[in-house]
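Quick review question:
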């Protein structure tokens, strides 16, 4: 009879230790990126516009990666800036000062930045970067973002793999 309480205790311990973030590598077809997501993302791609979105929800946060292939190199820097500005506007959020971002394989660009956004009921972390004519936007959106999860998500990105 002592086995039953011990079994319940073991199940409770194992359940408490199970991670709410189940990190996995994802390679969306044709996106030129390897991403580390904390859950299995839904992936949508549109052709011939050459754009896509991978998104999932885990531990109360939404994680997304968007990519778009541009036709003109002169559009890259303005597109990166517009991605940050438009998300802040959609969320009606105050933007923290932007900081440089480094993603393995990215093309250097002064508009490759990351920043925090604070809205009334949610917060976001956004990073925008490019490789050649491809522009990317990584976002984590939550009531209270997990900074360690954001760092894992961001450092798990690799371009032109």
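Suggested answer, residue by residue:
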């Amino acid at each position: 009879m002592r086995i039953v309480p011990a079994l319940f205790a073991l199940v409770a311990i194992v359940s408490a230790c199970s991670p709410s973030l189940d990190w996995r590598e994802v390679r969306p077809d044709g996106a030129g990126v390897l991403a580390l997501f904390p859950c299995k993302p839904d992936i949508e791609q549109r052709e011939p516009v050459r754009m896509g979105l991978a998104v999932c929800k885990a531990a109360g946060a939404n994680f997304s990666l968007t990519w778009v292939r541009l036709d003109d190199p002169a559009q890259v820097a303005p597109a990166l800036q517009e991605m940050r500005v438009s998300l802040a506007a959609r969320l009606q959020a105050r933007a923290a000062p932007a900081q440089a971002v480094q993603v393995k394989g990215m093309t250097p660009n002064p508009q490759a930045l990351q920043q925090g956004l604070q809205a009334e009921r949610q917060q976001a972390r956004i990073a925008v970067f490019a490789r050649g004519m491809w522009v990317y936007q990584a976002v984590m959106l939550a009531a209270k973002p997990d900074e360690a999860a954001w760092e894992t998500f961001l450092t798990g990105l690799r371009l032109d793999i």
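Why it works: The first strand starts at residue 24 and ends at 26. Residues 22-159 form a domain with the Protein Transport Mog1p; Chain A fold (CATH 3.40.1000).
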